[in-house]
Amino acid sequence: MTVPLLSARGLRLAFGGVKAADGIDLDVMPGEFLAIIGPNGAGKTTFINMTTGYLRPQAGAIEYEGQAILGLAPRAIVRRGIGRSFQLPQLFTEHTVLENAALAIAARAGIWSPLVPLLRPGYRRDAMALLARFGLEGVAEARADALNEGARKLADIAMAVALEPRLLLMDEPTSGVAASEKMGVVETLVRVLREAGVTAVFVEHDMEVVARFADRVAVWSQGRILTLGPPAAVLADPAVRREVIGIEAAAAHG
Amino acid sequence: MGEWFAENGLLLGLAGLDGLAYAALVFMVAVGLNLVFGVLRIVNVAHGSLFAIGAYTAASIGLFFTAQGLPPAAGYAALLLGAALVGGVLGPLIERVVLRRVYGYEDVLQLLVTFALFMILEDMQKLVWGVQPVFQDSPMKALGTVEVPFGDDTIPFTAYQLFVLPGVAVATLIGLAWFLRRTLTGRVIVAVTTDKEAATAMGIDAVRVTLLTFTFGAALAALGGALASPTTSLVPGIGASTIVLSFAVVATAGLGQIEGAALTSLLIGMGRSAAVYFAPELEVVVPYLIMVAVLLVRPQGLFGVVEARRV
Amino acid sequence: MSRRAEALLALLGVAALIFTAWAAPWLRFVLTVALAKGLGVLGLLLLLRAGQVSFGHAMFLALGAYTVAFAAPSVPETLVLLPAAALLAGVAGLLIGLFVVRYRDIFFGMLNLALSMVFYSVLEKFYAVTKGTDGIRVPPLTIAGLEPVRETQEWVMFGLALGLALLCALGVRAYLASPMGQALAGIKTRETRLEFLGVPARRVLLFAYVLSATMGGAAGALIAMTSRHVTPQLAYWTSSGELIFIGILGGAGSALGPFLGAAAFELVRVYAAAAVADAWQMILGGVLLAVILFAPGGLIGILSGRAQQRPAGRA
């Protein structure tokens, strides 16, 4: 039997009266693409925030590669190989895309050399190569805040990938991306991650994306996991259709 | 301890009364600064100059009234008139002519704009009133002194500082709380403070609210200055020392609640006044020590709310 | 601004400074002080890069200046006092920095303000040690063991300030272009991302803070050695405001900005004070307003705008 890469047990966290996590148990297997779906406020982002050290659960345990990571700072968790991207892309808005990528590459190597330029030949080459993998080489010299949402999302994920994580948590990688760009963005993303052998957990609202790219789907509702299984089975489940996808469809068309 | 108290008890009482009067003035300035920061998101360095000019204007009007042979009660009208004049003229002028041009600029530029205003207003004040001390205490003298019972003794203290200053501060606190929570305009101000974008999206006229808030804050600072004017001689530099002190109050209290600003003013007023009587060399330092100590324990200030960053 | 334009501007600036100091001896003092202040502002600029405005940075200049004033009677040697003052300020910057880098924005600004005001009133109130507002006179200093005549002394101080200014401007330029410097700028726009890149943002800011304090100490020492008189006013909050003023006046985009700003500031001050003794502050305030409203890039921005008015020119 394969050992899970990430294993969460009994995670609980309440904000005031709202239970954002009400006993979350989840194993993420090496190499899989796990989608998280569920209505807004179900605690999907909270799970990512807890796993990456941004929020601390009130109870429970999280193990990564067999070691407890709960209580570590986001920085320490990142260094262990868990990357994350954000629903609202977290780019250095006053830097160029190239500089953003180079900073991520420098961060992996260690930034403590005060006199050598960031855009030294080695970093520039690596950063350009990274951007090329995401099809972003054309906007390398543009300022990060001048990009469209799709490119911004990809740049955000590229920065996480630069750290060479083994597990990548992505918070709504396609939200805000124009419908016409969406499939292209996801295809690029999946190709890069498969090439790099990265295990991925991603929060997603678009059921078409989920059906096409996820190996397993976890359905979140009110801080709990409702169902977990292969997309075909989960998306066909009447309870899921009623409680989650129905809402999704209404939200998407409303 | 008992021995120390027997020797210094009266001094302690006096420090308490002084602290209360001082806290009242500090509150008037700090609450305006807080209000303006809430809506404009600008730390107004020139706020202290409005305090100073309010004080000078009130004193000049008071002296003019006295020269006209008006009764001492007119001195109070002079205080209010001075505050209203400075708040009502300088407030809108500064907001409309200068600040409005820099909304959306970087924080440091906005801050510097008010620093430039501070430099200009400081010199303007020197040009108008000179550098010789200005003194006009008839409103304070008119009310006489009160013998405040303290244990077996009494402490003579001016009625003005005992009743008028804390009275106005408390009235301001209550009035402001009522205004912000119960009136439509007040709620609009609170809405803009909480989330400017959302408030604008809901159709709130942010331009008007900003003008109103700044004028209001300026008037509070000027009123603080006017009220302070009978208790001290006015010299150049009072604006500069007032503004740093109210910075300390605002940072210690944290941003937001006006009740928090009131309690913090009391804390810092009392602390400073205790230093004046028992450790004079620490007089200037005490407010900042309080602030540093508070922020060590509560980084968001005594009454500030932690804003979670959404990611 | 392009590399070449910046280098050209630096060369022109140095030549203009030396020429002015030679042609107008009465301005040598003003220019030396301007270079020293520029050095202090250069340090402040590092914090501005991170989006943090210290409203108490003058405390490090005052610390450097008072170090010279206190130590000069026993060690009257310029080349010992200058590094000693910088070092002491750097150590103070480390201790204070460990505390203040945990805070951002208004709290960062106000804590620096508070600490500088504490230092100010210590200088002002403990008369027995500091002579209060009277300040302390700095005795004549030796330079490498020599006791030069007044004019040589002035030239040496001017040269020292100029040399240090150039050295630090080059150093800061390299530092800001390095990953650490770029991460510093990242604190301003996206501190969360830094943390998720595994970069400790506080340590990045602390490094800059210590660096800025060290430059502040050296600047203060130069001011004390040049003006030969130190007062608590050096640490008052308006002096910190003045440093930010100079930074914005010169332009925060280049390591040359602070020096350009400081020279302009000191010259305007000298001539404004001579022309209208009672209103020089008002004139400076007016200049500042005009710069912010009409040329937010500062003097450097104006110059580089002139230098490259091409359509494709990127700022």
Automatic annotation (TrEMBL), chain C:
<feature type="transmembrane region" description="Helical">
    <location>
        <begin position="33"/>
        <end position="51"/>
    </location>
</feature>
<feature type="transmembrane region" description="Helical">
    <location>
        <begin position="155"/>
        <end position="176"/>
    </location>
</feature>
<feature type="transmembrane region" description="Helical">
    <location>
        <begin position="244"/>
        <end position="268"/>
    </location>
</feature>
<dbReference type="InterPro" id="IPR001851">
    <property type="entry name" value="ABC_transp_permease"/>
</dbReference>
<dbReference type="InterPro" id="IPR043428">
    <property type="entry name" value="LivM-like"/>
</dbReference>
<feature type="transmembrane region" description="Helical">
    <location>
        <begin position="280"/>
        <end position="303"/>
    </location>
</feature>
<dbReference type="Pfam" id="PF02653">
    <property type="entry name" value="BPD_transp_2"/>
</dbReference>
<dbReference type="GO" id="GO:0015658">
    <property type="term" value="F:branched-chain amino acid transmembrane transporter activity"/>
</dbReference>
<keyword id="KW-0812">Transmembrane</keyword>
<keyword id="KW-1003">Cell membrane</keyword>
<feature type="transmembrane region" description="Helical">
    <location>
        <begin position="81"/>
        <end position="101"/>
    </location>
</feature>
<keyword id="KW-1133">Transmembrane helix</keyword>
<dbReference type="GO" id="GO:0005886">
    <property type="term" value="C:plasma membrane"/>
</dbReference>
<protein>
    <submittedName>
        <fullName>Branched-chain amino acid transport system permease protein LivM</fullName>
    </submittedName>
</protein>
<feature type="transmembrane region" description="Helical">
    <location>
        <begin position="58"/>
        <end position="75"/>
    </location>
</feature>
<feature type="transmembrane region" description="Helical">
    <location>
        <begin position="106"/>
        <end position="123"/>
    </location>
</feature>
<keyword id="KW-0472">Membrane</keyword>
<feature type="transmembrane region" description="Helical">
    <location>
        <begin position="204"/>
        <end position="224"/>
    </location>
</feature>
